[in-house]
UniProtKB/TrEMBL annotation:
<dbReference type="InterPro" id="IPR008254">
    <property type="entry name" value="Flavodoxin/NO_synth"/>
</dbReference>
<dbReference type="GO" id="GO:0010181">
    <property type="term" value="F:FMN binding"/>
</dbReference>
<dbReference type="Pfam" id="PF12724">
    <property type="entry name" value="Flavodoxin_5"/>
</dbReference>
<dbReference type="GO" id="GO:0070819">
    <property type="term" value="F:menaquinone-dependent protoporphyrinogen oxidase activity"/>
</dbReference>
<dbReference type="InterPro" id="IPR001226">
    <property type="entry name" value="Flavodoxin_CS"/>
</dbReference>
<feature type="domain" description="Flavodoxin-like">
    <location>
        <begin position="3"/>
        <end position="167"/>
    </location>
</feature>
<dbReference type="GO" id="GO:0006783">
    <property type="term" value="P:heme biosynthetic process"/>
</dbReference>
<protein>
    <submittedName>
        <fullName>Protoporphyrinogen oxidase</fullName>
    </submittedName>
</protein>
<dbReference type="InterPro" id="IPR029039">
    <property type="entry name" value="Flavoprotein-like_sf"/>
</dbReference>
<dbReference type="InterPro" id="IPR052200">
    <property type="entry name" value="Protoporphyrinogen_IX_DH"/>
</dbReference>
<dbReference type="InterPro" id="IPR026816">
    <property type="entry name" value="Flavodoxin_dom"/>
</dbReference>
<dbReference type="GO" id="GO:0009055">
    <property type="term" value="F:electron transfer activity"/>
</dbReference>
């Protein structure tokens, strides 16, 4: 059982989540590796794919969106899990991290197009010292500042529980041959 955990990450926190998921899968006997979507691997070389992207201005990163669109046919026929890494805190009208309002724009289309086994949103991280010029400027806007605090909010217990559920699904559900 070979699984690839793909990520699109601007500043590294989503990469960290992907590497953690791959490590947790390996600890449960799954042969898993994390790689950037930029490496453009062929999903057909794997039995299952996990794809995650950082979220900026309500959207997945372009390279992750393009990877899913380009590989739509292959992904539709295999077990796929998606995750988004973004929120740094819950706004006033957001009940929990599972609130559909936190879902990036592309996700509903992906759910229809490739029928993934699941999609999860995880808290992200923000280090102002790493931000590029555009992101630093955007973060200075009053509305953005309130929802983009500095800090590492990644919930490793929650992420581990999700990785465990994937390992469990792979162990108990038949995977169609590629
Ligand atoms: C300018 C800017 C805009 C952001 N917009 C969103 C957003 O719309 N939704 C969200 O959930 N997170 C948003 N975030 C938070 C990032 O998704 C979060 O910091 C994430 O962990 C970054 O991942 P990376 O380090 O892998 O690039 C934004 C962050 C910045 C700096």
């Amino acid at each position: 059982m070979r699984v690839i955990v793909l990520y699109a990450s601007r500043y590294g926190s989503t990469k960290g989540i992907a590497e953690f998921i791959a490590e947790k899968l390996r600890q449960r006997g799954v042969q898993a590796e994390a790689r950037s979507v930029d490496a453009a691997p062929d999903p057909g070389d794997y039995d299952a794919v996990v794809i995650g992207s950082a979220v900026y201005m309500g959207h997945w990163m372009k390279e992750a969106v393009e990877f899913v669109r380009r590989n739509r046919t292959a992904l539709t026929g295999m077990p796929v899990w998606l995750f988004s890494s973004g929120p740094l805190e819950l706004g006033p009208e957001i009940a929990s991290i599972d609130d559909p309002k936190l879902e990036p724009e592309e996700i509903s289309g992906f759910l229809e197009a490739i029928h993934p086994r699941g999609h999860r949103v995880f808290f992200g991280a923000l280090d102002p010292g790493k931000l590029g010029f555009m992101h630093r400027t955007l973060r200075k806007l009053p509305a953005a500042r309130a929802i983009l605090p500095e800090g590492d909010f990644r919930d490793w217990n929650n992420i581990e529980a999700w990785a465990e559920s994937i390992a469990h699904a792979l162990a108990t559900q038949p995977v169609a041959p590629a």
